[in-house]
């Protein structure tokens, strides 16, 4: 840094106002900071020197193949999907580390990479899709591209069996990031621009929410609208068009049933009672479906939940979405469900001529949001049978750990609430639960 730059970077007026003791403190702080920086640099050099020696890899001996990868991940512990300059704790950073480590790509810059969606911090995905050029064993086939001055034809070994992309990537990826499938695609294919529909799901407990009111508001979202009042504007990245098309909205109670097997019931009387109860439950569900709110098949709300702890899901399908659009939509729908807003507030927010400026409200939490599906034309996913079974086992283990914790907490809550209110799980305990959880986690 030049002398002129040094003078400009220091506010000399402020320094002249400091006492001797304050200047000494400032110098001590700077010395500590310099020491910390030196330690960081030294550790970084030590890590680099300890890296195992890697043989150079001759990529010119292989062609590349343009493929799509279907990826699932739990985003709770990550800073988002897209790579960032100030952190390596992103899905994309882990993915490219694995791609480079397995020698499937030389670098991101040369891989013709596109992603379908850019999920934010904490958001998960079951069907994120990326497209890129990967090393291939083949000499020809869909998506195969010959390298300039490449020598793939001269390489010894089998040139008819493709690399097991899913298998080798999942061997080096973290357990909460899984490649589910792959598919060869045309060189013009882009995971971002070739996507026809995207589906998001948002999970939440019923609490004391009025699901029918929420469904009344949700059906107003369907269609081609200007959603500037239901998103976070991203003008810095050149987004100036806020019109998007929402194809469908579905609001219902989650259908993850825990059924008791008839083989577990010992007496004929218990069997008869069990069948009778199931029949009544089935009739009740059918009645709820008939009485649910529907809009061209887009809204199907099961209005009768037996417990405030029952989980519900909102599913939104569209061609594309704006930044934080789903979280803003959920925030407004929760206010409608609590009775703090009318379903007609959706009409007001979509009327940008009458309301050109977005009102202030807090977005819903990112944790229950998942990019559930990305749909493309003419995609035939290739699954690795052995790896699929291994992925299922890993997810089952994660599910078991979380469900045990959830069940323990549920038991504690029911025990506490029945002592205070005379019955288990009183809905009044959920009066502020939804707002405190879905908003205050941000």
Shape, principal axes of CA atoms: globular
Record field, number of beta strands: 10
Helix content: 25-40%
| Class from secondary-structure proportions | alpha+beta
* Cα-to-Cα separation, first versus last residue: 40 Å
Tell me the β content. Answer: 15-25%
Low-confidence stretches: 1-10, 258-305
Can you give a write-up of this model?
The chain is an alpha+beta fold and 442 residues long. The protein contains 11 helices and 10 strands. Strands 1, 2, 3, 4, 5, 6, 7, 8, 9 and 10 form a 10-stranded mixed β-sheet that branches. It is globular. The chain starts with a helix and ends with a helix. 28% of the residues are buried.
Structure described in brief:
This protein is α+β, with helices and mostly antiparallel strands and 442 residues long.
SSE blueprint and pairings:
Blueprint: H1 3-9, H2 12-16, H3 20-50, E1 63-73, H4 91-101, E2 114-115, E3 124-136, E4 144-145, H5 165-172, E5 177-184, E6 197-205, H6 211-218, E7 223-226, E8 243-253, H7 268-291, E9 311-318, H8 325-337, H9 345-350, E10 369-375, H10 385-421, H11 433-438
Parallel strand pairs: 3-10
Antiparallel strand pairs: 1-3, 1-4, 1-5, 2-3, 6-9, 6-10, 7-8, 8-9
